[in-house]
Write a structure and sequence with these properties.
heterodimer, A: alpha+beta, Outer Surface Protein A, domain 3, 12% strand, B: alpha/beta, TIM Barrel, eight-stranded parallel barrel, two-stranded antiparallel ribbon, 21% strand
Chain lengths: 249, 285
């Protein structure tokens, strides 16, 4: 029996392949364990890389498989998961991609990662009961006085890059992206979240609704930012996708 | 509102499989010969959506086992209170007939490493593991099962054999044991002991569930076989033989086939479950 436990060295060398294999670890014959220790190092690196590949398929396509594995290897060493809920691994991946010097030429990757992470958050978000469309069968004045609670699975992403088009081009057969800022709302009707491109003022409108602003005031706020704001297209999207729940008058 | 069922009070001594969402529609159509399901707790720690809806469906219709892979019971640091709270919430609403975890650790310095990592077997680590099991069992308000690990190496400082270590933990905490016969075979091959002797030394009367899974074959620095507990293939022939050896000692037990990577089509997994049923039939009580 050794005087000093190998537990701490075992832990400390797991994420750092440059560290020597810890002492005090044996094979069955009592000789040093050698590369048997690397099984654990490898299991960790492979499983975390696979989790990132599964969670960020559009980023993986944009980078190519080999590049993605390399980037994932850096990320997992600097940002190991903070909880056992692997479904939420990669929260800082967008920020990491933006600050990772070798990827400086691809400044849009961070927002694509944020969009993919938001899709995952939406997938696991709480369920809700969508508003009965009859709610809207009221006089215009009453309609404009309504406030809403928004679905817990709704997410908003804003980017100076064509983040929706980049995602759709890689994941959904969309057309080649054209430069320009885009706002995206992620909505989940039952179980499968989908991103939707928002027209100008759409984001301000949804953010206002989320603050329990009345429909009328949210409309005014959106118009103040975007004179061409199209209320009916955003509102019908939110209703059709069941993004509005319960009203308060 | 969901009403947690009480139609199952234990896992049946019959084949179960680890539930994979890929098999959802096959299971709705015909789950036979599978009689119960096991899920990894951590995959159902979201707030809603499809995973929670599917688990609710399974929990209403089948005996359910929840198997944790993230509590880090063998770890040197205190259990993550947020994780334990989420576990308690999950066990409360899904009301499984069994909850199990591993003799292993996965969290260090508040980082989760997504692997089942080994610990030395000493009097000090024994106390630590027992404290953690006491904490889990009081949080979830029920007995848990503790699973034997697969090992690729041993700690020089260990002073306990694994079966004795597990037996002593069970004796002190009142937990049951989950015997993974693939893990026994993997560890025995990797560390050069007899898997039958391990089973002989194991307190099989405490076993509430048996696991089966496939492994990969590799080699160490000296060209000696090194088996990897990969859960990505059929159960190997010598593991089926070890299962027969085990069941002859233990009698019928709930048997779970785990297949977590390169998940096959349902009929292939169902065939593995059928073979497990055949092994059970040989030792029918």
């Amino acid at each position: 029996m050794s005087d000093i436990s190998a537990e701490a060295p075992f832990r400390d060398a797991l994420l750092d392949p440059s560290q020597a294999i810890p002492e005090g670890l044996l094979d069955g014959a009592g000789t040093p364990a050698g590369r048997r220790y690397d099984v654990y190092r490898n299991n960790i690196a492979v499983s975390l890389t696979e989790a990132l590949e599964t969670g960020f398929p559009a980023v993986a396509k944009l980078l190519g498989e080999q590049n993605f594995k390399g980037v994932a290897g850096f990320y997992l060493r600097h940002h190991p998961p903070k909880s056992a809920r692997m479904m939420f691994y990669g929260q800082a991946f967008g920020e990491f991609l933006e600050s990772f010097e070798p990827l400086a030429k691809f400044p849009y990757l961070g927002d694509v990662a944020r969009l993919e992470f938001a899709l995952r958050e939406s997938y696991h978000a709480a369920d809700h009961i969508a508003l009965d469309p009859q709610t809207f069968a009221v006089e215009p004045e009453a309609l404009m006085a309504l406030t809403f609670r928004l679905a817990p699975s709704m997410r908003l992403i804003s980017s100076p890059w064509p983040v929706y088009s980049l995602w759709a081009f890689n994941m959904a057969g969309g057309p080649k992206p054209i430069a320009g800022a885009q706002d995206v709302v992620i909505l989940r009707t039952e179980f499968d979240p989908e991103p939707h491109l928002l027209g100008s003022g759409g984001r301000a409108f949804i953010e206002a609704l989320a603050m329990q602003t009345t429909l009328g005031d949210a409309y005014e706020e959106a118009l103040a930012i975007a004179p061409d704001f199209d209320l009916s297209s955003v509102l019908s999207l939110l209703i059709a996708q069941g993004a509005l729940q319960g009203t308060t008058q | 509102m969901y009403d947690a069922h009480h139609q199952f009070d234990a896992l049946p001594p019959a084949p179960g499989v680890g539930y994979k969402p890929q098999h959802w529609s096959d299971i709705l159509e015909n789950p036979a010969p599978v009689q119960w399901f096991e899920v990894h707790a951590e995959n159902y720690m979201g707030d809603g959506g499809r995973p929670i809806a599917q688990l609710r469906y399974l929990a209403e219709r089948f005996a359910l086992s929840i198997h944790g892979v993230g509590a880090s019971i063998g770890g040197a640091e205190r259990l993550d209170p947020d994780h334990i709270a989420r576990l308690k919430h999950l066990v409360n609403w899904a009301n499984p007939v069994s909850f199990s975890e591993h003799l292993a650790w996965s969290t260090h310095d508040s980082h989760f490493l997504n692997d089942l990592l080994p610990l030395p077997y000493t009097t000090a680590t024994l106390t630590r593991v027992c404290d953690h099991i006491d904490e889990v069992q009081s949080a979830i308000g029920r007995q848990m099962l503790l699973e034997n690990p697969s090992s690729y190496l041993a700690f020089a400082e260990s002073t306990w054999d694994e079966p004795d270590f597990l037996e002593e933990i069970a004796r002190r905490t009142g937990c049951g044991l989950l015997l993974d016969v693939n893990n026994v075979f993997v560890s025995a091959t990797n560390l050069g002991f007899s898997p039958q002797s391990y089973i002989d030394a194991f307190s099989v009367h405490r076993v509430g569930e048996i696991h089966l899974a496939g492994h990969d074959e590799d080699h160490d620095d000296h060209g000696k076989p090194l088996l990897i507990d990969a859960h990505g293939a059929e159960v190997a022939e010598p593991v089926w033989a070890l299962l027969d050896y085990t069941l002859a000692r233990s009698g019928p037990r709930p048997l779970l086939v785990e297949w977590d990577n390169d998940v096959p089509e349902w009929p292939i997994l169902a065939d593995e479950a059928r073979r497990a049923a055949t092994a059970l039939a040989k030792v029918a009580a």
